[in-house]
Amino acid sequence: MIRNWLKNIGPGPLVAAAFIGPGTVTLCTLAGVGFGYALLWAMLLSIIATVVLQEMAARLGIISQKGLSEIIRSEIKNPVLKTLAIILVLSAIVIGNAAYEAGNISGGVLGLETIVGNPNITIGAFSINALSIIIGIVAFVLLFIGNYKVLERVLVSLVILMSIAFLITAIITKPDISEIIKGAFIPKFPMDSMLTIIGLIGTTVVPYNLFLHAALVKEKWQAKEDLKYARKDTIIAVVLGGLVSMCIIISAASIQTQDINNAADLAKGLEPLFGSFAKYFLAIGLFAAGITSAITAPLAAAYVASGCLVWNANMQSKKFRAVWMFILAIGVISSSSGLKSIEIIQFAQVANGVLLPVIAGFLIWIMNKSAILGTYSNTIKQNIFGFLILGISILLSVATLNKVFHLNLF
């Protein structure tokens, strides 16, 4: 059974690798430190939402043999709406991923620094972090090879490494199982927790993953009969990714101090309680989370740009490579030099927050078009789940705008 699943493994682990980045690790850490196990239910809800939407994206990719951005371009007939949709998608995914790429690489660096120290290179007045450049080179080589199978195997290995690292870290903290079950299945809203709840959902239900998944399933499967493999692949990978996020929350809940701001602080906080082993396991997990997201973010941006601008979505085409090289370069430069482009990241938050309900709504609309999907269009049950998630994504959008523009809506 395991051998059969490994043989039919697809883009699911890449989707998991994409949503478990350093931002997710940091947010889950803050959720655990601030609210203990109380917000585990929000992560469980986000896992269900992600499975539903990613299954739709995978089904669309296999049945239509087109990417989501290609279908957006072809199905929106009004030229004004089509132009606005393309601008919004390109802004959120391409520019947004460029803004987040520095965080992805920096997260990988934080993990490595725990193990090997901080090897900075000083050139005149500039100090450059060598680890950022090393991670950038590794990501560049894997993307430049342009072989989906190679990329898949590397990312699957890193996701497994990350999963084991965070799982062991959580086990070392000796959590209370009954409290974990209560936190996962009994929704609670502690004071000042609303933005954290919305954030946990927002870091898991990621707009660019819908584009990435629809584009990548075509690399693995072409026959409608393969849909069952795609569904298993999606469910197993997303659930595994969600469990990793839950393990981070559980690990952070064991920390007694509130003076924890990110995953690096979590590693330090675990050390006096459980020795240096927990610190190293967490460092390995953080490194894997950073480098996997550093690879998938440029890849997703390249697929989106290719679909929106009617380019050849071939991993070895010059235009495709130019997009991911741009994203990766921005991330390496920002991370290695310590630049923090707050305005760009805020723009990315707004664009992604606005984009999620738009894309979720468009995806549900498309999934009900028999002209595209035939008998594989959405069932009533799938639509009910889809519209519930659409409502959550609208709430997420409002919360994102509230956070960035300080509207005091919550």
Report on the structure:
The chain has helices spanning 2-7, 12-19, 22-35, 40-64, 68-75, 79-116, 130-145, 148-172, 177-185, 194-202, 207-220, 227-253, 263-274, 276-308, 318-337, 342-366, 370-373, 380-405, and strands at 120-123, 126-129. The relative contact order is 0.21. The protein has a two-stranded antiparallel ribbon. A hairpin with a 2-residue loop joins strand 1 and strand 2 (126-129). Helix 13 runs antiparallel to helix 14 (276-308). It is mainly alpha-helical. The protein is built from 18 helices and two strands.
Topology:
Elements: H1 2-7, H2 12-19, H3 22-35, H4 40-64, H5 68-75, H6 79-116, E1 120-123, E2 126-129, H7 130-145, H8 148-172, H9 177-185, H10 194-202, H11 207-220, H12 227-253, H13 263-274, H14 276-308, H15 318-337, H16 342-366, H17 370-373, H18 380-405
Antiparallel strand pairs: 1-2
Report the principal-axis shape: globular
Order of strands across the main sheet: 1-2
- End-to-end separation in angstroms reads 48 Å
**Whole-number radius of gyration?**
20 Å
- Percentage of residues in DSSP E strands: under 5%
Poorly predicted ranges (pLDDT <50, ≥5 residues)? none
- The tally of helices reads 18
Helix content: over 70%
Number of strands: 2
| Oligomeric description of these chains | single chain
Q: Estimate the mean pLDDT confidence.
A: 82
What structural category do the secondary elements indicate? Answer: mainly alpha
The major sheet is characterized as: 2 strands, antiparallel
Give the helices and strands as they follow along the chain: HHHHHHEEHHHHHHHHHHHH
